[in-house]
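Q: Please design a sequence for this.
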């Protein structure tokens, strides 16, 4: 369990790293997003990528994120792009285990830091933390956090949160509930 003091120290450490990386432009690999002509969107995307690298502990260019909506919640999945990249795989697993614990405690500090704003749905998810389960699952190339609820208000917040993640991380994942495959997703996504 993370104490408020330890969480505060972690946030300060991440903020220090972010201040060092914020000035350097970071571009994700793969095709350019449709909004590439807009300097404001390029700047926002670079900020999300740079802050994400610092907060998550792995290089967005060496990994692929997926966010999926399901009838009972959804999932966050990250995998290393190369099966030989065990360093990224291990950092992904550490990060997602931590995310499952933090979210279960109603702590959304990491996505707030990555996105430089309160992600839509996060406040409701924090308030209804007792009605939402976060299950970490190891995958071959990384891991997944499966998010489930039977509460309609919590479900709406989870979907709102995941839809925001899809847009801000530019993954191209569908913004419609579907049943996540037990083996995870392949293809699509954005190498972040």
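A: Design:
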């Amino acid at each position: 369990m993370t104490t408020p003091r330890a969480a505060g120290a972690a946030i300060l450490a991440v903020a220090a790293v972010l201040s060092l990386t914020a000035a350097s432009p970071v571009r994700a690999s793969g095709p350019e997003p449709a909004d590439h002509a807009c300097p404001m969107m390029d700047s926002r995307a670079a900020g999300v990528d740079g802050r994400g690298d610092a907060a998550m502990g792995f290089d967005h260019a060496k990994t692929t994120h997926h966010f999926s909506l399901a009838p009972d919640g959804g999932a966050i999945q990250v995998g290393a792009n190369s099966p030989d990249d065990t360093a990224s795989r291990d950092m992904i697993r550490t990060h997602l285990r931590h995310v499952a614990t933090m979210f279960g405690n109603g702590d959304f500090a990491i996505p707030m830091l990555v996105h430089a704003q309160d992600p839509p749905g996060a406040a409701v998810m924090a308030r209804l933390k007792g009605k939402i389960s976060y299950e970490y699952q190891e995958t071959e190339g990384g891991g997944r956090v499966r998010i489930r609820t039977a509460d309609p208000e919590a479900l709406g917040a989870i979907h709102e949160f995941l839809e925001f993640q899809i847009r801000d991380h530019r993954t191209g994942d569908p913004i419609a509930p579907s049943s996540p495959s037990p083996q995870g997703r392949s293809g699509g996504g954005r190498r972040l």
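Q: Thanks. Anything notable?
A: The two ends are 29 Å apart (CA to CA). Residues 86-104 form the longest helix (19 residues).
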